[in-house]
Amino acid sequence: MFMGEYAHTIDAKGRVILPADFRQELGVSFVITKGLDKCLFLYGQQAWEELAAKLRALPLAKPEARAIVRFFFSGARTLECDKQGRFLVPANLRAYADITLRQSVVLTGADNRIEVWSKDQWSRYNEEVEPDVTAIAASLAELGI
């Protein structure tokens, strides 16, 4: 399970340090793809295969199903960290997530995945969600959580 929040800087070549706490659980090779809310998702191979199986099971006759399959698979790349624990964020994914070179990024644990955010997007997201925490909590209570 991935937990925590870590701030790093993306370097001039588009690389980000993967926090040591995340490296072991993520594994040697992992998948990066477009995420929801203008962030990127990192999945270990097993978690990616589980998601991919669910996406494959969606009915192709439904336009929404085709759209979500395209969304996740079109941006997906298999990556590995270098000896310094850095991984390269592909240019198309940096553009999607509004991440620019030499900018601060935030990596957050989100159970079975890691999310990579531009620091500005993460701040905006938290400003929007924070006031709704009480409402979200009430919704969770209705779901039995």
TrEMBL record:
* Coiled-coil annotated residue ranges, if any: none
Q: Which residue intervals define the domain SpoVT-AbrB in the entry?
A: 5-47, 76-121
Entry-linked Pfam families: MraZ
Any transmembrane segments, and where? none
Which lineage? Bacteria, Bacillati, Bacillota, Negativicutes, Selenomonadales
Q: What is this protein called?
A: Transcriptional regulator MraZ
Give any single GO term for biological process: negative regulation of DNA-templated transcription initiation
Q: Where in the cell is it found?
A: Cytoplasm, Nucleoid
Q: Which gene encodes it?
A: mraZ
Q: Which InterPro entries match?
A: MraZ (IPR003444), MraZ_C (IPR035644), MraZ_dom (IPR020603), MraZ_N (IPR035642), MraZ_sf (IPR038619), SpoVT-AbrB_dom (IPR007159), SpoVT-AbrB_sf (IPR037914)
**Protein source organism:** Mitsuokella multacida DSM 20544
